[in-house]
Amino acid sequence: MQQNEIIELIQGELWQRLETLPLVPRTQAIKPVSGKAMVLIGMRRVGKTSCLLSYLKKLAEQGVPRSSVLFLNLEDDRVQITNALQLTKLIDQFYSKNPANYSRQTYILLDEVQAIAGWEKVARRLVETDRCELWLTGSSAKMLSKEVATVFRGRSIAHETWPYDFSEYLTAKKLPSIDPTLSFANRDLARQQLESFLFTGGFPEVVKEESSETRRQILNDYKSVVILRDIVERHRITNFVALEQLVNAVISNSGNLLSVNKLCGDFKSRGIPIGRDTLFEYLEYLEDVYLAFLVPIYNQSLRIRSTTPKKCFCIDTGMVANYLLRNRADIGRLFETLVFIDLKRRGFRIFYYRTKSGAEVDFVVVGENGEPLIIQVCFDISDDQTRQREERTLSEAIKELKCKGILLTPYEYTKGYPWLDMVI
């Protein structure tokens, strides 16, 4: 069978699949911008392909002719395309077979485009073509936002894709959203849903899986693939043991302070030679591939922000849960990680804070207008001493920073996202 016949077959399979494919609507709607390539970036398996398919399904519902759409998963083993010349030839065939495409709006969606050597030249030519809407996804190791900006020279918009949020998780699990304000029973049910989400996480494939052991294996595989393919291969790292131990340390300590000096000393005591500069370099790689993130302290001094230990957070609570025991303290850290991911997906600048008395405030969030908002996160305030401590810390921070603050509990969280509306 000729390559163009295989592509036709794949396209036909795609449209049939879309008719019955259960797609979870994503909270963050991505709208195309005229004259710009739309690029979806993020960690592997967070649902970039599903976002493309959701958009494709929407086009079909709007009556867009199928012949004006080309969707290709370039990692499909049936697609024997490895270089820019072959990709160009295929796209030329897409136009020549349907001459109407030369004068009407067309849609080209290339999934896992990094599989094609020299894809950048093809993409630049397409985005400069009149009436061609171009969508691209790729592994985060090849499609970092800074690289996308360089390739397209201002002719692209990069959208970060994240694991499911809580509402998307409920939709994927076919669970009703429960209003905790209506009764104490509802409050307990909503809290139970949230706790289940914290230990499952938001990777779409993991959410669909019922077996906890299988979920654990899938998440471990994700971690291994990111380490090997997106970091080791890309940066030609030879100190694999140190990198793997760093990844384990960062994920298992999500929500905690991370001291590079202490890490360096700990590694050396275990016979793992690595320097501070290399550790800092590896941490940058983890952020590049969206596996983990560092949060600085809130302080006007750049020197203090850069020298004070940062808090670390993992991309997914389920991945963190693989390292933890199921106890109250762990659930608290998972909840804090979830709140961080919610803030991160909305593009806020995120810090933590330490009051003059030494108490730690979980988050200071800065929106577009530059006004900070304090968010103190606590999963369980049923104990009076815990509640008083959290409220006292929040009150101290509000007075010192002279801004608004909120104590975020599961009750507040499961009411929806009005707490995020406080960040402007």
Tell me what you see in this structure.
- The chain is an alpha/beta fold.
- It folds into two domains: 3-161, 3-Layer(aba) Sandwich (Rossmann fold); 167-422, no CATH class.
- Helix content is 48%, strand content 15%.
- The protein is built from 17 helices and twelve strands.
- The protein has helices at residues 3-20, 48-61, 84-97, 119-127, 145-152, 166-172, 184-200, 204-208, 212-235, 240-252, 260-269, 276-288, 302-307, 317-321, 328-345, 384-401, 410-413; strands spanning 37-41, 69-73, 106-111, 132-137, 156-160, 257-258, 292-295, 310-314, 349-354, 360-366, 372-377, 404-408.
- The strands form three sheets. It has a five-stranded parallel sheet, sandwiched between helices.
- Helix 4 links the parallel strand 3 (106-111) and strand 4 (132-137).
- The chain is globular.
- The mean pLDDT is 90.
Please supply descriptive tags for the structure shown above.
single chain, 424 residues, alpha/beta, Rossmann fold, 2 domains, five-stranded parallel beta sheet, four-stranded mixed beta sheet, 17 helices, 15% strand, globular
